[in-house]
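ok so i was messing around last nite and threw this chain in just to see what happens. nothing serious, just curious
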Amino acid sequence: MMRHRLLGVSALAIIASTQPNGAVAQEVSSDTVLAPIVITATKRSEDYFLLPSTVDFASANELSVRNIDSVADLDRVFPDVNIRTRSSRAYSNFTIRGQASLDFYNPSTQVYVDGLPQDSFNLSRSLPGNLESVELLYGPQGTLYGRGAIGGVINITTRKPDNDMRFGFDGDINSEGAGGTFYGNLPLVDGVLFSDITLTGLHHKDQYTAMLTGEEVGGSNDLNGQVRLRYAPEGSPLDVMVSAGRGRVTSTEEYFVMESMLEDRIALPVPSKYTLDTWNFGINASYDLGAATVTALTGYQNSDFDRTVFGTYTPEKQWTLSQELRIASNPDEGNAVDYVAGLYYQHLDFTRAIPSYGQIAQQKIDSYAVFADVTWHATDRLDITPGLRFDHERVAAKATGTLSLNDSDNFSAISPKLGASYGLTDEWRLYGLFSTGFKAGGFTRTLTTANIAYTYDPQNTYNSEIGLKYRNDEGTLEGQLSAYYNVTKDYQMFVGVQPLQYLQNVGEVTAKGVDLKLRARPTDELGITLGAAYNNSKFTDYSNPVTPGTDLTGNRVPYAPEFTANVMLDYRFDLDNDAGALIPYVALSYVSKTYFDETNTIGQKGYGLVDLGIKWELDKNIAAEAFVTNVFDKTYTTYGFNVAPYGNVYQLGDGRTFGGRLSMTF
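result:
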């Protein structure tokens, strides 16, 4: 998979509120202790160990050691997760616990950065240069996050601008290109007003050679920047942060390789290129009332996707405006009840054109929601967590050209949740959870003469899981084991053949599985991280309107591998004479056979990847690293489909890549 970095109003927000502090691993004095983890993906600060659900966490340092700098690479550290770019990064697939993103425009996983939802074109974005941590909530999160959070939620938190002047640089040069991020924090008014700026650039070399012409294609160039201004007077309950960002990607990554030419990486000589321009603005404001914090979050994103694929010019534009107002209890051991409740609104405006056919499709979607989530500490050991959300969505669709459409519809849903966790001992905790997810119906965004229908019905997911968590008193070992079973009714999926696919309901999908995560620091020097998962995600009642006589019941869901695993070992050698430490590491990841279509005829057989590296930490401010990813140069595909007259065509992950990285903070 291509590694990349892509960084990405309301008076109410300024007057009213703020987000709780970002997820942090609490400070500890010894490297031999695994820090207790407090997360905020649940929209209030909570110890993840006590939650009645599966949650995973990766610090900025853990991701840096693995050379992971984009959301698209997080499946190398999180079990039961598969993230792949389909055609372009704008249509990335996210599969968590078998819930695949078979709707190109509305993936089953939501990505948030500092509390703000990311545009669907920008989900596989780069991790910010001032990253603090990444949290993953597994399973349907309909109660807290509403539409689209069927598989889970990825919550990215950054270090807020503060009163310390600091600058940082993180750059690498490798056999596939080069990249660098500069970060600066500038206090403007001592103890009152702060700012920071992030600038990122990345060049990824061409990875294919075009058939006939010999042209080198398949590369990308990214240029991105973000600036933030924070007003947070010392001792004041008010905290307001305003952000603005700009990104531009130019790429030829949408070239495809015929099955017979995978090893040679010879691409079809069909013009494919795009430019993706993004603007984003946000306000994150809060007011601490003492017992609770009121938070208002306003986000605006505008994406211009100027795209030519397989020789056809199909530009797309989308802008979204979101507003959330909520109140959440502040952490306090004396609380009998902790809670979060709020209101949410989003407007989405989408346009897709095919000028060669004179076709233009437009959609406007307005979403409204009210939600609440409560934790009742019934006893010292027992927590009960109910939650409820009401969503209402209105969609208006219009199309002109070869096909005409002018229609609207409304959809509503109630998404309940009930969880309970019980401390068997101080070290062991048992939990059970019932949760739901909702994805509204609507009108397909791809209108062609091949469409049998232009509308589709809502999709609903019902999930149950049980789990066991362990964290020893010494702080050297923690783990979580969970088993889940969920059923999705009226599953939404693109049907038909490329390039004439469109969204429809295809029946029922059932996913069941087990996942395991362990983190250990058994000695002062040795660190171990292990993740493994088994998932069985199949169509249990398949009905495709395009081919009514075809029954694919029992087939595996595309992009949902049966087994995934990742392991990392690192060992710290402290050097004499204040020369710092050397930290060699080895990381392994495995993905079993993965299908790219519902007929289970196109796919990638199982494969494993090995990464090696050695990091030199001079001190907390300077580090250098040498690394090799995909050590054995495994050729593997990330996306494929059948298209006449070429047969099966694919896109490929990166081959062996070696390079060096330098990180400095001053």
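not much to say yet. The two ends are 33 Å apart (CA to CA).
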